[in-house]
Design goal:
Bound molecules: NADP nicotinamide-adenine-dinucleotide phosphate
Mean pLDDT: 97
Largest sheet: 8 strands, mixed
Helix content: 25-40%
Low-confidence stretches: none
Number of helices: 8
Distance between the termini: 35 Å
Number of strands: 8
Structural class: alpha/beta
Shape: globular
Strand order of the largest sheet: 3-2-1-4-5-6-7-8
């Protein structure tokens, strides 16, 4: 697939690297430092490049939004039209000091994004994964099948979900369809639980979760 990464930091950089390693055509974009994007693309290998958000989006099958919440308006302006695009967002609607959710209970960051890009097919995914786990997978390869972590995702469009499922697998995770986009209201607080376990315990940030049924 052709993937536009809007926000190429810890999350976007690592996910783009994982997908490029599986042969997807990845364009890293939306940085204040073009050299950083070029270096990231070089590190990600021959199927990655750096570019401008609007160019990346125009050619893309899937757009990954991996940005700080306070930059959302700038990113949407830079990305241009998202009409008809599958837009995966791992972005969390955090307050500017990153201490709490700015949106919740009756809405979610993913739903706010869908409101601002009404003709995009928004899927919430990967926000429950610490970037350090992604970096670990970049460096060490996927975990064994039996120990593969889950990624719960949510969205309203079944066709868009069909694009995202193989991308979740290609990143090294077991996809779990959590339902419609409004379920992002539960995913986003759950992501804060994962962050709590990752950053506020002594066990380290390379942590994932896995749903099991008897
Ligand atoms: N990190 C995690 O473990 C994690 C886990 C789950 C969800 N999330 C969520 O995923 C999203 C991305 O997180 P991240 O950790 O990948 O963030 P990050 O490392 O800060 O990446 C943000 C990207 O946005 C770019 N950007 C462009 N203009 C910017 C501006 N004015 N201010 C700040 N950044 C700007 C940055 O580029 P330059 O700095 O190169 O300019 C960078 O590439 C956030 O919503 C976060 O809450 C993160």
């Amino acid at each position: 697939m052709r993937i536009a990464v809007i926000g190429s930091g810890r999350m976007g950089g690592a996910l783009g690297r994982l997908w490029a390693a599986r042969g997807h055509e990845v364009t890293f974009s939306f940085s204040r430092d073009r050299h950083r994007l070029d270096a990231l693309a070089k590190r990600a290998g021959p199927s990655a490049r750096a570019g401008e958000p609007a160019d990346a989006v125009r050619d893309a099958d899937v757009v990954l939004m991996a940005l700080q919440w306070h930059t959302l308006d700038d990113a949407l302006a830079a990305a241009g039209s998202l009409a008809g695009k599958v837009v995966v967002s791992c972005s969390m609607p955090m307050t500017p000091d990153d201490s709490a959710l700015a949106v919740g209970m009756t809405s979610s960051g993913a739903e706010e994004l869908a409101r601002r890009a009404p003709r995009a097919n928004v899927i919430s995914a990967f926000n429950t994964v610490p970037s350090e786990l992604l970096a670990h997978l970049c460096d060490s390869g996927p975990l064994p099948e039996a120990n593969r972590p889950s990624v719960a995702y949510a969205g309203d469009d079944e066709g868009a979900k069909a694009f995202v499922v193989p991308l979740i697998r290609d990143a090294g995770f077991d996809p779990v369809d959590a339902g419609p986009l409004m379920v992002a209201r539960y995913l986003e607080p759950f992501a804060l639980l994962i962050a709590q376990l990752a950053y506020e315990t002594d066990d380290g940030p390379e942590v994932g979760y896995r749903f099991v049924r008897p």
